[in-house]
Amino acid sequence: MADKRFYITTPIYYVNGKPHIGHAYTSIAADAAARWQRARGRDVFFMTGTDEHGQKVLEKAVERGMTPVEHVDDMVVHWRAMMDDLGIAHDKFLRTTDADHIACVQATLQALFDKGEMYQATYTGWYSPAAERFWTEKDLVDGKCPDTGLPVQKVEETNWFFKMGAYQQRLIDHIQAHPGYIRPESRKNEVLGFLRKPLADLCISRPKTRMDWGIEIPFDRDYVTYVWFDALLNYVSGIGYAPGGSAPGFDATWPADFHLVGKDILTTHAVYWSTMLMAMELPLPGCIYAHGWWMSADGAKMSKSLGNTIDVDLLAGAFGVDAVRFFVLREIAFGADGQFSYEGFLNRYNADLANDLGNLAHRGLTMTRNWLGGTIPELGESTGFEAPLRALAADVVTRTAAAMDDLQFHAALAAIFELVGAGNKYVDDVAPWTLNKQGDTPKLATAVRTILEVSALAGALLSAFLPAKSAALLAKVGRSVDDGVADLQAALADGPTLARLVAGTVVDVGDPLFPRFREMPEAIAALFAAPEPAAAPPPAKASKPAPAPEKKPVTDTELPAEITIDDFAKVALRAGRVVAADRHPDADRLLVLQVDVGEEAPRQIVAGIASAFAPEDLVGRQVVVVVNLKPVKLRGVESRGMLLAAGGKQVVDLCGVNADPGTLIR
Ligand code: MSP
After folding, report:
1. Probe ligand 1: pick from 79, 95, 293, 304, max atoms within 8 Å of CB?
2. Which one has a higher pLDDT value, 651 or 211?
């Protein structure tokens, strides 16, 4: 049998708006992983696309005075352009309005119906158009959708249901038997926490009388299928799945190695999709990887409705596409949230791309031109500094490959830039300018050649992240993109030799790869310019937070000022149960807990109680939680709530209550 293809997917994007940096993020990550696997010689299939049915899209079409078809045909252009502009080299762009996708969804629905996996029932619930899902009364927060905070509609209707609940135990068993199935680990715990409650069946239809923009259910033509049931099937419809017999190639491609998703759509993938696959008798994917969110500088999730999104076109226009690709993957660990700021972008660009990588290459190239007649020299006599550099290069190649197979993009980039940093240090240690002055040509040749070799190796390792700049860097030392791939494969197989370039090749010095920005590029600075006349304050995303007023510390025994009962009533307390606990990766004092407070998924709470409790002692413990505390990040980890504890600064015990998670405490 031929080797299994490496199959990676992004979510398919709703066409109710234009793309922003959050969407670009998933696409860039998947593209970097796909490019890396291709470069190392694997057969890759990378699929992406657009999710074009459902209430949200329909509402947008109505708002724009268009038919749904006109609207989606118009919007999809922006999504294709985003992919093209960012160099996303997908193998397929699927639209859920494609005829073969529709045929696959209908055939799958029919097959599941024939197998007895579907039944009809009358249902009453609260529908959130923004999240495209139903909630029970108890799920609502202040009468609103708990995911989006937006209004819900009460709906009582007869619908079709998929017997999802029947697969609950099989799903738990699968997750436990395959520790890498849901990643990162904290998200796996969240899903297992969700699965502790009985799993309800999934409503998979919408009566056409309420919403007809969807795929018609073949066994009941009064209904269309629920948008998630339609959308999730893209992962198999796009590679030729058919219940009766799939297209050639399907078996070599499915199961997917990685489904990349944002953390907001983890349940739909980990629970709905996994159980759908079980019912369809297909193997489950290797890994569902939930990444974090890009937040605005003030810590809010970016969204169109808040108007705080970052325009990727503008950013790429100002700094270059590859700089955007590099920044989003280097800045935060894949899985964690990150706050976007233009200053942060500028600083990282200058430090890593201009000062480190660009500078190393430019130094080697100008030395070649100025001292060695502009051609790549043969390696001469050792300066004594090459062997340690080669050893580090070997280690970096190994670490990069391990990190890329594991989607740890930031770790891969950190490793590559360690090599770049070592290359710059090599220049300082060897001091080629002194060798040149002394006329020590054998050592000078080695030094300059080694600088060029390290630059070229970094270029080859970076090709998945910086496709255009990597090609430009390699071209400067006479290497084509294919040569770069061969260099990478050789380095992976046998270790880097730092002797791959061809002596005698004329180098092309040209301009530095990454020009340094002494100040913010004009197009971005203009965003922050005071409007004329200069009366209005700068937009919120530009403003620096005002310095906090100095606070007098309150000691453990000192009584703070009195509050009224109304002040106290603002604090929402609920009973909770700890379902998982870990040490904080970056702070000895802190533990990271997953606490069931009666919501759909447990909440992550970071608590300063590590001096009093070991994580394993806390699992199962009943606690009291402040649930309406504004989320904060403690040493980079998001915390959504606070536990009540006794003992002030020196915690001695946790407050507990013998009540079901979610019970109101007054
Ligand atoms: N259509 C569904 C997915 C169906 S997949 C079978 C959907 N679409 S979406 O357009 O709303 O979101 C697509 C992806 O973009 C999600 O993974 C979501 O997490 C991601 N992002 C949207 N905003 C984001 C940020 N601010 N930051 C990072 N990613 C976020 O959901």
Report:
1. 293
2. 211
For residue 262, report the distance from its CA to the centre of ligand 1, in Å: 6
Q: How far is CA 22 from CA 169, 292, 464, 466, 637, in A?
A: 34, 9, 19, 19, 19
Measured from the Cα of 261, ligand 1's closest atom is 17
380 Cβ contact partners less than 8 Å away, ≥ 6 residues apart: 441, 442, 443, 444, 445, 446, 449
Q: Could you read off the pLDDT of 285-322 as tens digits, one per residue?
A: 999 999 999 998 778 878 766 678 888 999 999 999 99
Beta strand segments in 23-70, E: 44-51
Q: pLDDT category, 398, cuts 50, 70, 90?
A: very high
Q: Is the CB of 440 under 6 A from ligand 1?
A: no
| Dist. CA 80–CA 170, nearest whole Å | 38
The sign of the CA dihedral 367, 373, 376, 381 is negative
**H or E segment to which residue 196 belongs:** none
Residue 97's alpha-carbon distances to 70, 104, 205, 241, in angstroms, are 12, 11, 17, 16
When pLDDT is cut at 50, 70 and 90, the band that residue 664 belongs to is: confident
CA of 282 to the centre of ligand 1 (A): 25
| Distance from the alpha carbon of residue 13 to the mean position of ligand 1, in angstroms | 6
139 SS3 class:
helix
Atom of ligand 1 nearest to the CA of 20: 23
β-pair partners for 578: 595
Buried b (16+ CB within 10 A) or exposed e, 438-476: eebeebbbbbbbbbbbbbbbbbbbbbbbbbebbbbbbbb
DSSP structural state of residue 645: E
Residues 265-275 have pLDDT tens digits of 999 999 999 99
53 lines ligand 1 (CB under 6 A): no
The strand pair at 182-183 and 287-291 is best described as parallel
Whether residue 532 is predicted with pLDDT greater than 70 in this model: the reply is no
Q: What is the pLDDT of residue 624?
A: 93
Q: Is 290 in the pocket of ligand 1 (CB under 6 A)?
A: no
Q: What is the DSSP string of 338-387?
A: EE--HHHHHHHIIIIIIIIIIHHHHHHHHHHHHHSTTBPPPP-S--S-HH
pTM of the model: 0.79
List, in sequence order, the alpha helices (H) in 40-142.
55-63, 68-85, 99-114
Q: Is 310 in the pocket of ligand 1 (CB under 6 A)?
A: no
Rounded Cα distance, 624 and 626, in Å: 7
117 lines ligand 1 (CB under 6 A): no
DSSP one-letter code for 254: P
What is the spatial distance between Cα 257 and Cα 252, in angstroms, rounded to a whole number?
12
Please tell me the distance from the alpha carbon of residue 108 to that of residue 35, in angstroms, as a whole number: 32
